Amino acid sequence: MRLSKAIVAVQIAIVSFCVSAGAASAQVVALGASNTAGYGLSSSQSWPAQLQAMLQARGSTTRVINAGISGDTSAGILSRIGSDVPEGTRIVILSVFSYNDNRKGITPAEHQANVAGIERQLRSRGIRIINANGLIQSAEKAGMVQADRLHLTAEGCRRVAMGLVESIR
Q1: pLDDT greater at residue 3 or residue 30
Q2: 3-state SS, residue 13
């Protein structure tokens, strides 16, 4: 009887430790469209997944959530902040380009207003924003794109993740 109570106590302690360790780890959300989602790649090849793997290899418990949706616009990203950026998120890595907006008739002024709205909502929640656009553009300019010349290759995604890994603390 005593042994079973001791086992239960140890199990409760382990569960409590795991829950508190999970709560203490930073949560990162990658928010964007197709280059965030990893269009044309396996889910493990997207830059958010590669970033997660790099952080884990360094011993970090940080979770990276991929909230990229292919074809999404700046208005769509703005509308889903509440559902895709959960409470407890500390960092959002933002990637919002105007390509999908242009295709769907969203003007440059509307695009800018939507991006400003996204940033305003995140900052009002105390969330740090890291802009990944420059890293994605750099990989594109280096030719790390798929045949469509729009979406990153797995190597391009690795380059983006490597550029971000030091920013996550």
Answers
A1: 30
A2: helix
Report d(CA 126, CA 91) in Å as an integer.
9
| Alpha carbon separation from 47 to 9, 13, 29, 80, 123 (Å, rounded) | 41, 35, 12, 20, 23
Instruction: Give the mean pLDDT of 89-112.
Output: 97
At residue 128, what is the residue type?
R
Sheet of strand 89-95, all strands in order from the earlier edge strand to the far edge: 63-68, 27-32, 89-95, 128-131
CATH number of 25-167: 3.40.50.1110, 3.20.20.210, 1.10.3630.10, 3.40.50.300? 3.40.50.1110
Task: Give me the residue label for tokens 């550029």.
Answer: 163
pLDDT tens digits for range 125-169: 999 999 999 999 999 999 999 999 999 999 999 999 999 999 997
Closest CA to 51 of 24, 30, 72: 30
Residue 11 pLDDT > 60: no
Cα separation, 64 vs 91, in Å, equals 9
